[in-house]
Please model this.
Amino acid sequence: PGLGLAASNGACFSLPPNIGETKRTWKYFDLGVDWDAVKRIVLPVMSKYTARSNGSYVKLTHSSIGWSYYSCDPEWGSLQASHLVLELENVLRPFDVRFVMIKGIVEIVPRLLNKGLIVKMILREVAKHNEELNLDFVLCVGDDVQDEKMFTSVFSFMAETNQTGHTVPSPCVTNGEGKPVAIFENPTDNSLSKEDRLPKRSKINSRMDPTYAFTVAVGKKATHASTYVDTP
Model:
């Protein structure tokens, strides 16, 4: 109880279960990509590269398709990865997706997907559903280049609470069957509307209590985080 989870770079999430609940309910961002159509195009191509690269494999999640060459011969794996991207770039042009190149893997994800989506949604929902309490502490820690969007989303949320007219709503949320659902299971919560996906003015602005927001990068490097630590 009290612990929420997010997976697949924030594409899906589970709110903290209530006391006594033993089963989690997972919800998903609708990012406007026909993922079944993408799979029909991508999987045969990736299978071809898997067959010619010992140690490689295809990794599937709810909102990503990855080709891992981490266990391949480094030189051969990198060469095949570059050829794979070139081959897929043209056939995937009709879809709103992008390539993510991280160590040992080529990943295809929706263009709108990043970890900042889930961070901003959590902050917005906590502020909206706890208006009697002040949202006074935020800690965001990351060690990867994909975590940079989390850091900027924290700063963006802090700024937009004072300028709600200039913010962009979060994507719609769906269940496992692709049907739109409310984020919180509350009959008065119509978070599917554009207005409800915008942040409400929370107690952050109506009280003199300060809000402490810390963004921390692991390792000394160029980052949007406000500070860093040497080790986790």
Summary: Confidence is low (pLDDT under 50) at residues 187-192, 198-208.
